[in-house]
Amino acid sequence: MNAVFIACSLDGYIADKNGSVGWLDSIEYPKDYDMGYGDFMSRMDALVMGRKSFETVCGFDVEWPYDKPVFVLSNTMVSVPEEFADEAYPVKGAIQDILDRLHKKGFKNLYIDGGKTIQSFLKEDLIDEMTITTIPILLGGGMPLFGQLDKLQMFECVNHKTYEDRIPQMKYVRKRG
Amino acid sequence: MNAVFIACSLDGYIADKNGSVGWLDSIEYPKDYDMGYGDFMSRMDALVMGRKSFETVCGFDVEWPYDKPVFVLSNTMVSVPEEFADEAYPVKGAIQDILDRLHKKGFKNLYIDGGKTIQSFLKEDLIDEMTITTIPILLGGGMPLFGQLDKLQMFECVNHKTYEDRIPQMKYVRKRG
User: Fold this and answer.
1) Which of B17, B127, B155, B171 to mutate to probe the A interface, most A CBs <10 Å?
2) Share of chain A above pLDDT 70, in %
3) DSSP H helical segments within chain A, as ranges?
4) Which of A71, B25, B42, B48 is deepest in the core (most CB within 10 A)?
5) B117-137, pLDDT tens digit by residue?
6) Does the beta carbon of B30 lie under 8 angstroms from any beta carbon of chain A?
7) pTM here?
8) pLDDT value at position B28?
9) Is A156's Cβ below 8 Å from some Cβ in B?
């Protein structure tokens, strides 16, 4: 099962025109809860993200944020920097082959993160659920969460919350067949 | 006050790649209520839409759907087809000038409709509230609800409903200054 858990702007961007996510701090978040992130992560076996997202996380001035293995999609990266060697592992090849290998190792519930990676998975209709928190801001441009698709994909809204009565979060699951 | 009331796909499109809105019928809607449309319309004094949207509505094989005057933005249209002469009125010029004229005539609360028109109003930061119903489908391309903007715009989510527990609808109001 491949899942997305992400915040995006009202106009569907996950990073602004400068590639920054600083605008996420333009609203105040609830102090006492994590907006479902902990529950979501506890259901996941591992993360899958692109090289660029991985390098962004490596650059954060905080402790390594994940307690699950992170698989970094890259066809050129041979190893991750030594300090992250216990946390992250490069993987290469076609997405379905990578998934087959991860499933065999017991990593079945995967948190798919990063704009390009999410779009690649969606292109192959490999996303099963998406939890999307909408930040009520129009950025007017940037990195879109969704890209072009050859075929439409039906989802179902299975959960809906509004944190502090002003931050909507929806959970959608893919409706196939 | 300029308001938007619209349905869009999960990936932010209001028409598919063929310009069609047929995909709106890919989900089942609540039978007993109008998803807030009646309440919304009762607050409005008139509609403002582009020529293309107007022509689309004219082509619908149903009775004229609006009981409020419709102002059709067009710099080339001199009059509307005779059968709609009591319903719709062409207006031309810069958006702010048109608004000034409509306000003077007592049309203060305006329902702004049609993709291009909504985007033109947003470009000039003239939208005060947006009620957006999200249809849980990824279209993968088409006519986007939102376009590029020079400056970001903060909104506030002031109302949130989920019709039949599966069709989310959010109302956002512009937060200025």
Assistant:
1) B155
2) 100
3) 37-43, 51-59, 95-104, 115-123
4) B48
5) 999 999 999 999 999 999 999
6) no
7) 0.94
8) 83
9) yes
Quick count: other Cβ atoms within 10 Å of Cβ A23?
Answer: 19
Residues with Cβ within 8 Å of B33's Cβ and at least 6 positions away in sequence, in order, are: B163
Neighboring chain B residues of A154 at a CB cutoff of 8 Å? 26-27, 136-137
Under 8 Å CB pairs connecting chains A and B tally to: 104
Residue B61: what residue type? D
Q: Which of B16, B137, B148 sits opposite A155 (nearest CB)?
A: B137
Closest CA to B23 of B142, B112, B117: B142
Contact indicator for B49, B73 with CB cutoff of 8 Å: yes
Nearest CA among B77, B73, B168 for reference residue B116: B73
For residue B47 the two structure tokens come to 């509609």
This complex has an ipTM of 0.93
Beta strands in B30-141 (DSSP E): 46-50, 70-73, 88-91, 110-113, 129-135, 137-138
B121 neighbors B146 (Cβ within 8 angstroms): no
| Domains of chain B and any CATH numbers | 2-175 (3.40.430.10)
User: Do B45 and B10 contact (CB within 8 A), yes or no?
Assistant: no
